[in-house]
Amino acid sequence: MPNEATHAVLSTFNVDPTRRDDQEFGLHNVIVPGVRETPGFVSGIWTRTTDGTKSTVLVAFSAEADAREFRASVVVNASNQAAVGLTLDDVEIVEVNAIAGA
User: Fold this and answer.
1) What count of other Cβ atoms lies within 10 Å of the Cβ of residue 58?
2) For the chain, give me the number of helices (H) and strands (E)?
3) Whole-angstrom Cα distance, residue 87 to residue 1?
4) Residue 48: pLDDT over 50
5) pTM over 0.90
6) CB under 8 Å to 64, separation ≥6 — which residues?
7) Beta strand pairing status for 54-61 and 7-15?
8) Which is it for the CA torsion 59, 63, 68, 70, positive or negative?
9) Tell me, what's the pLDDT at 102?
């Protein structure tokens, strides 16, 4: 089925907690709407640790090729991430084995 996730991009970032307002604005007004339009997009989860210093993002895709293209875009976007206090720590492609949800 085309809307079932097969692969995901798992990214971790170091976060400057003093830039939270800029990060939240970019996340809700630029990142999430843009990611929703990415070919093969199935779902995405953006998290932040309670101390505000780390973020983990999991974006699932219906095809491995789409996940690979998205991963490349995350890496290339490092300067925009840095502009709002985010530093990419790691980004990898993982297989989706199961999803539980509503």
Assistant:
1) 16
2) 4, 4
3) 35
4) yes
5) yes
6) 6, 7, 93
7) antiparallel
8) negative
9) 59
